[in-house]
Amino acid sequence: MPVDLEAVHGIVEKHGYMESSLIAILQDMQSTFNYLPQKALREVSKSMNIPLSRIYAIATFYKTFSLRPRGRHAIHVCLGTACHVRGGQRILEYLERKLGVKSGGTTEDLTFTLERVNCLGACAMGPMVVVDQKYMGKVKLDKIDSILKPYK
Amino acid sequence: MAGARRIANRLELDALRKSLLTSRSRAKTLITICAGTGCLAWGADSLVRGFQKEVKRRGLGEKVEVKGTGCHGFCERGPLVVIRPEMICYVNVRGKDIPEIISETVLKGNVIERLLYAKDPSGRKKIVREDDIPFYKLQKRIIFGSNGQIDPTSIDDYISIGGYGALSKALFEMTPEEIIEAIKRSGLRGRGGGGFPTGVKWDACRKAPGQEKFVICNADEGDPGAYMDRSLLEGNPHSVIEGMTIGSYAIGANQGYVFVRNEYPLAVQNLIIALQQAKEYGLLGEDILDSGFNFDVKPSRGGGAFVCGESSALMASLEGKVGEPRAKYIHTVERGLWDKPSNVNNVETWANIPVILRKGVDWFTGIGTEGSKGTKIFSLVGNIKNTGLVEVPMGTTLRQIVYDIGGGIPNGKVFKAVQTGGPSGGCIPDHLLDSPVDFDRLAEVGSMMGSGGMIVMDEDTCMVDVARYFISFLQEESCGKCTPCREGLLQMGEILTNICEGKGRRGDIELLEELSIVMKDVSLCALGGTAPNPVLSTLRYFRDEYEAHIEDKRCPAGICKALITYSIEATMCNGCHACFSVCPSGAIAGEKKKPHLIDGEKCIKCGACREACNFQAVIVS
């Protein structure tokens, strides 16, 4: 997929080329491209006159960012303490087996990215699975297949 | 709703409040629907739309107002609908209930039994009023209570309940020094976990040399199992903004930041709306209410790093850098954001400020204990009947919170521990349940207040596994800057994993204790310094569980996979085949209507069969 450098310029400009807005710039890029393409990072470095190493440090430090393309659908399994004591780990393991990827991985067909999150603050519904923006609570192992079905 | 217009001065603010109150008293019934993240996940947004449609369809717009509000707190029973002024509370409401609620309750005043909260499991003793439900009745909701009354996206709603009145009082009736003195006298301590006296911090920041100063709201609530700050920012963002504005006037700052977790999209959205409205009304910006005081607030979304909840890491992140903490001998109040004096307080702390000024210091100090004044919001989660957010006076005992408000442990299980303080806190056992909750007492029993997560654990929780869970969480979240935290957590994680896998050796416990002491003493920031707490507190109260894992290679709670086997009790199994269908590894054999068997060789101990079995026939030993 070609990287739309116009979009990169637009984002950088929106934030007024401010170095203090670097995280916000990368956040906007992440949501535009669904990852941080190398070409885009180089462009940010050039247009803002910030060393690429500094941008790379931020891109790899914060969990929001991904240097590889993410799947079309994001599956987040909550492993906050409340979900953990209600069996969230079993759900993550089930999904890992089901999708054939480890937590943090993306399926080969780029359909799903599976990730664990540490608490989404909907603890009453634990264990929780969130697909894209849809929250699903009190998830049981035998319900997972039907949860994934609409996204395939 | 009054259109966007600037409120020029104090008198205009009072006039607006009065006109809002008169225009609103005409609407007779107010239907409030909890639309916090929890209830939204239960489908609250379609409920709000459904009520609005139904009211419109029946032409009741003049008589009935429908409002999606912030979190009411009783997440377990969501979606929640409260009908005011009678305060009739309906729980687990579905879309199909809407026409009946309108025609029966709103129009005829009849209560629908089916939708009421039932006091006992048999469902016979029903409770009508929200404030009579034990979950609410035993709380004191001075900070969190407004959430259920107001639409968080409406500044008029906040103003109508007295909002920005404290700011007006601060700006026109008090000097900055008097405000600081009042906050000092109130005894308010930081709600983010540290418990540092807020007034003292403000004073130091005010006195710090420098023209430009900053106030910051820490809304990077990262403790797993804690979500009160999210619910406050989502449900009542103006209270936080008002608190920050008062604080900045007292300190002498003109710029504020709210650093909010990106995992909380609704909080980010409502905050941005609230900031916009406050600016339009002139309650933020230049010459606020004609006082000559200028203040502005910028929102900043976090990048998903737990360590950024630490104040110096938070400020690094605000500067657009990697969120690494720095050594504590440099005080934030002297050299914080961009090396300027900065004052960081947590969401709940800021939300306390307007309440203290509005109701008075003496009123506030009448609540709580000697060393901890006011209330604290806790998120009561885990193996507990009434999951939700609870606000109680400091000094309430853990037993009252877990049993009287929380309703105790579900499914007939036995209480084992309550974990407070997030990954930096500790696990408190049964025999200390009568400890009052305040900053000092929780520290004495080896835990801490933290931001207010309270995770209840039942007998099926393995305490070694819990310790391992927190250590692996922190290991992932450690920024890696200082060695004791980075390497200490790695080593601790390996030892704990070994113990959980049955590879524990004698001496491991002592090694964990030794590592803990070093980490506590020499880590750069609080993340590393408090990281050993979950291990130390479980060792202190549940040492026998560690010993069972190490000596007998046994996990008493039946959690650690390497130490357990799954089998089917033939006398309990009726051959329903449910386990057979869910087993991912084909380890279960058996014909329908005959007892099944688990092949230990093939079993991957995922627990799916146990969850699927309705007859408790799957045994873990």
The interface involving the most residues is between:
A-B, 47 and 62 residues
Helix-strand pattern of chain A, N to C?
HHHHEHHEEEH
The major beta sheet of chain B can be summarized as:
5 strands, mixed
State the major sheet of chain A.
4 strands, mixed
Runs of chain A in which pLDDT lies below 50 for 5 or more consecutive residues are none
* Cα Rg of chain B: 26 Å
Q: What is the number of independent domains of chain A? A: 2
Estimate the helix proportion of chain A, in percent: 40-55%
Can you tag this structure with a few keywords?
heterodimer; A: 152 residues; alpha+beta; Glutaredoxin; four-stranded mixed β-sheet; B: 621 residues; alpha/beta; Rossmann fold; Ubiquitin-like (UB roll); five-stranded mixed β-sheet; 40% helix; globular
Report on this model:
The complex is a heterodimer of chains A (152) and B (621). Chain A has 152 residues and is an alpha+beta fold. Chain A has two domains: 5-61, no CATH class; 73-151, Glutaredoxin, CATH 3.40.30. In chain A, 43% of the residues lie in helices and 12% in strands. Chain A has a four-stranded mixed sheet, with helices on one face. In chain A, helix 1 (5-14) runs antiparallel to helix 2 (22-33) and helix 1 (5-14) crosses helix 3 (38-48). Chain A is elongated. The model of chain A has no long low-confidence stretch (mean pLDDT 91). By secondary structure, chain B is an alpha/beta fold. Chain B folds into five domains: 15-132, Glutaredoxin (3-Layer(aba) Sandwich); 155-364, Rossmann fold (3-Layer(aba) Sandwich); 375-458, Ubiquitin-like (UB roll) (Roll); 463-551, NADH-ubiquinone oxidoreductase 51kDa subunit, iron-sulphur binding domain (de novo design (two linked rop proteins), Up-down Bundle); 565-620, Alpha-Beta Plaits (2-Layer Sandwich), CATH 3.30.70. Chain B is built from 25 helices and 19 strands. In chain B, strand 3 (81-84) and strand 4 form a beta hairpin. In chain B, helix 7 (165-173) runs parallel beside helix 11 (237-251), helix 10 packs across helix 11 and helix 19 (483-500) packs antiparallel against helix 20 (508-522). The longest helix of chain B is centred in the last third of the chain and has 18 residues, at 483-500. Chain B is globular, with a radius of gyration of 26 Å. The mean pLDDT of chain B is 93. At the A-B interface, helix 2, helix 4, helix 5 and helix 6 of A face helix 2, strand 11, strand 15, helix 18 and helix 25 of B.
